[in-house]
Amino acid sequence: MEKSNQKGLAGKLEKKRKRQIEESTKQDGLDASSTVAPANSTNGLNKKKRKKAKNSSNQPGQDVKMQDRKDGIDESIGKMDGRLLSDYFAQRAQKLNKELSAVELNDISVSDSAFFDTTSFTESRTLERLPEFLKKFCSKGTDLSKSSEQKGTPHTLIITAAGLRAADIVRSLRSFQNKDSIVGKLFAKHIKLDEAKQFLQRAQMGIGVGTPSRVSDLIESGDLKLNELQRVVIDGSHIDQKQRGIFDMKDTHFPLLKLLTRPDLRERYGAGRTGMQILMF
């Protein structure tokens, strides 16, 4: 009987020992998995960071462009000389119309010699600085407040993307306006084409401010005359609330190119006493 009890007790102790070993093994497995999990989690985070860094490095040009565009001004435009501007105009045309042929692109290309280098104007190109900008790049003795005796014959045209912006530009140039020389509104915002024609037929205008399409229409009608035009100023640095400038929209960039490459203007770029040039504001 005593031997039987001893065997039973030994069996119970053996079973208890096995259970302890099994439980210890399970706990070791849990500890190991908990140690590996953070490493896997860390690896996942590192992969996400690397992917994000890679995506950022793929778009350096966009980051630089966004840095240049602030407070309604694209600072990069004012840093371009004639050669860069000529290339930039062509690049924008190709981006906005990928079906342009080489011949078509050549027809609307503006020569680098057509541009007057304004990169020396290092001030921010805000409207408050526009009068100063115009004076800086006029020849000595030029009076921007004077106009031709011939009606509708400006010495300066300022081209911008939209009517509201054009109205703001007109207000910024009041210092050049007097009873004998008006700063003309050559844009479609609240002004019908016939009204604009009638204005040009009776007004002596030194400076005209307008959008590319409306200015072209007035030239074609014969009411806006170019025979005494000395400079075309492009409001190129301005960007709207949607971060768009005159070169970023198909309905403004192509009319602008069409205007600048008119034969009666193209043949006069830099042509001595009767020559004219494009200034980039």
From TrEMBL:
Record's protein name: Protein CMS1
Highest taxon listed in the record's lineage: Eukaryota
Bias type Polar residues, positions: 32-45
Biased amino acid composition, Basic and acidic residues: 20-29, 65-77
Pfam families: CMS1 (PF14617)
Organism: Penicillium malachiteum
Region span, Disordered: 1-77
GO cellular component: 90S preribosome; nucleus
InterPro entries: Cms1, P-loop_NTPase
SUPFAM superfamilies, sorted: P-loop containing nucleoside triphosphate hydrolases
